[in-house]
Design goal:
The chain is mainly β. The chain has a 26-stranded mixed sheet that branches. A hairpin with a 3-residue loop joins strand 5 and strand 6. The longest helix is centred in the N-terminal third of the chain and has 33 residues.
Length: about 300
């Protein structure tokens, strides 16, 4: 049976219109989906004392501050993803599930003493005044933490600045480490970058870099251990004038300098390569070991300056 010519033409026209309408409909769906993927979170939750807040992101920023009370205020935006919130009375977890390239920004305030777990791919992290333990991890991004308890940082690329913390552990591939006012042990290492520790009150310090300078300024505990190493940079150790320590300086091709009188262990300096210089200041007690393959080693008294610091 042959279809009427008018009906056939109508069906064909409808098919053509539907065909041309598909791209427009698809574009509208993509626009709608894109709008749906842009996610915002603005909420306040109670958290028990000593609780944990965990933030996960991709690209973007995390800013966390400490506050009085027992509430966590979370304001977050994700340009190309969704924010997922899981919360109990003792743990709050916010995660960004990325659906493309786009920044994720967190503005969070937490009760003082809260434990923080912060991680991102290309994320700058800033923490202030939380007085709790902080664990921060990022592939690319700067990390700045002020007024916290123990701090642990793991990063591939970025600078790390820590101030007024109660203990430090930093593992960095490329970037500088600045630590000011630590009250506790220090373990810091980077493959490429300077390490600077100032105003430290620490019983144990270990700082190591392959390519960069190391600077230490702080008190020396009578039973403490201080190991400072650079493969191809200068190492400066600035300690109080009344320090008592057994000192070991080791270098392959660099110079060794000391502001303190030297009483040699064994009565001589070992010549050749490598070279080492072992001596005591005061009654010994603490142990200071400084190594540099090709840089200058300088043991300074507090209050002196040296152009090598810069």
């Amino acid at each position: 049976m042959r279809m009427p010519r008018t009906l056939s033409a109508t069906l064909l026209l409808g098919s053509l219109l539907a065909l041309f309408a598909l791209p427009a409909d698809a574009q509208r769906r993509r626009d709608r989906d894109r709008d749906d993927m842009a996610s915002r979170l603005d909420t306040t939750l109670a958290l028990s004392p000593g609780g944990t807040v965990e933030l996960e992101g991709a690209e973007g920023e995390m800013n966390v501050t400490g506050t009085d009370g027992n509430q966590v205020r979370i304001r977050a935006t994700s340009e190309r993803g969704q924010l997922r919130l899981d919360a109990t009375s003792s743990r709050i977890h916010v995660q960004s599930v990325a659906m493309g390239w786009g920044d994720v920004r967190y503005e969070v305030s937490v009760p003082t003493g809260t434990r923080l777990l912060l991680s991102g791919r290309s994320t700058d992290i800033q923490v202030r005044g939380t007085s709790g333990r902080v664990e921060a991890q990022t592939q690319n991004g700067d990390i700045e933490i002020t007024d916290a308890a123990e701090v642990e940082v793991n990063a591939l690329n970025g600078d790390v600045a820590l101030r007024t913390v109660e203990g430090v552990r930093v593992n960095l591939v490329a970037g500088e480490v600045r630590i000011d006012g630590v009250r506790g042990s220090v373990e810091a290492q980077t493959v490429s970058g300077d390490i600077e520790v100032r105003n430290a009150v620490s019983r144990e310090v270990r700082a190591q870099t392959m390519s960069g300078n190391v600077f230490f300024d702080g008190t020396i505990d009578s039973g403490g251990r201080y190991d400072l190493t650079s493969h191809s940079g200068n190492v400066i150790v600035r300690v109080p004038a009344n320090v008592s320590a057994a000192v070991s300086l080791q270098t392959y091709s660099g110079a060794m300098e000391s502001d303190f009188p030297i009483t040699l262990e064994g009565g001589a300096i070992m010549g050749g390569h490598p070279r080492s210089l072992d001596f005591r200041i005061g009654n010994g007690g603490a142990r200071i070991t400084v190594q540099s393959f090709s840089g200058t080693i300088h043991l300074q008294r507090t209050g002196t300056q040296n152009r090598q610091e810069d």
